[in-house]
Amino acid sequence: MIFKRMLGALGVGGPSVDTILATPRVRPGGPLRGEVRIKGGDFDTDIQYVALGLVTRVESEYGEGEHVGLMEFLRAEVSGSFRLRAGEDRVIPFELPVPWEAPVTEIHGQRLHGMAMGVRTEVAVAGAVDKGDMDPVEIEPLPSQEAVLRAFAQLGFQFKSADLEQGHIYGADQRLPFYQEIEFYPPPAYSGLVNEVELTFVSGPGGMDVVLEADRRGGFHGSGDDSYGRWRVGHDEALHRDWAAEINGWLAALSQHGHGGAHGHGGHHDPYAHGGAHGHAGHGYGGHHDPYAHGGHHDHHGHRSGPGFGAVAAAGAAGLVGGFVAAEIVDEIGDAFEGDDDDSDFGGGDWGDD
């Protein structure tokens, strides 16, 4: 994908920039590759730096209100200073590591309603910073994440929407200042028990936390509060676990006991209760203990072999895609961000056309 523009900081006759993404679809932890092509204008130009950033839309709660804005969650300078001669062609290749916690935006070609993400190219010229248009990037699920998502489709859940919430999940080795909530309508068997179920992944190199939240209906077995389930698994283990049975058992426990504690994966404890702004200074990608380094959760079954992603995906691809057809698919990333305030605390910039 390409976007081409003139650098607004210099106006007519200044350099132009093309950003080409060789990998417009990536997975968490994978490389985002491409190149920035800068074309010299009518005069020599001193470029101070060229930087790239991954930007997405995040919801934040302030008091009784809610704010939606753009947040840059990955940033890297791909070039230092240089002099761009008039008419010169300069190519800057790049490869950026996508954070393991990057939210899923697309599953088997179907974009999740409510999600949008882009890469922004920033060029500093003559003391001015030009934050240009952004080109869409899609994040596909890891095989371990897809195993969980497939189970929701197998159980008859229907995808509702997805969003990003600023905050921190208590007890998780979370690096980013937000987490994703993927929301589902329940199947008929549980429609009288829960209004919806929200799924959150917190992934790392060795594994992931899977957090479920059930928005419970009021009634004989409950007062309408929320219940939670939580699993910590390695990526290989996740491929072999029967997630449909895990999720179904958790919901059955809610029906029988009014909470999910029967499986030892949660209950009423709110993993989001200690969220908010703490622990969000900077990106905090380094220096953390990997909770999955020694096999993850004690409930592991020790399986470390089996079919690769192709076999796992093929087994349930049809059902998975069918379960994720949203009421509205966002065709253009600009439409997804329509109405956002470019001058918000989350950063500026306009979303470019494909």
Strand content: 35-45%
Total strands: the figure is 21
Class by SSE composition: mainly beta
Mean pLDDT across all amino acids: 74
Q: Determine the fraction of residues in helical runs and give it as a percent range.
A: 10-25%
* Main sheet attributes: strand count, strand direction, barrel closure: 6 strands, antiparallel
List SSEs in N-to-C order.
Answer: EEEEEEEEEEEEEHEEEEEEEHHEHH
Shape field? elongated
Radius of gyration: 22 Å
Number of domains: 2
Distance between the termini: 7 Å
Trace the largest sheet across and list its strands: 14-15-16-17-20-21
The low-confidence parts are 218-223, 260-269, 273-354
Number of helical stretches of at least 4 residues: 5
Characterise this structure.
The protein folds into two domains: 139 residues, Immunoglobulin-like (Sandwich), CATH 2.60.40; 164 residues, no CATH class. The chain is built from five helices and 21 strands. It is elongated. A hairpin with a 2-residue loop joins strand 5 and strand 6. 14% of the residues lie in helices and 40% in strands.
Task: Offer a quick outline of the entry.
This protein has 354 residues and is mostly beta strands. 14% of the residues lie in helices and 40% in strands.
Please outline the helices and strands.
Blueprint: E1 2-6, E2 16-21, E3 25-26, E4 31-39, E5 45-62, E6 65-79, E7 82-84, E8 89-97, E9 106-107, E10 110-111, E11 117-125, E12 128-136, E13 138-139, H1 143-154, E14 158-166, E15 178-185, E16 194-203, E17 207-216, E18 218-219, E19 222-223, E20 226-234, H2 235-240, H3 243-257, E21 266-267, H4 309-322, H5 333-336
Helix pairs in contact: 1-3, 1-4
Organism: Streptosporangium pseudovulgare
Protein name: Sporulation protein
Pfam families: Spo0M (PF07070)
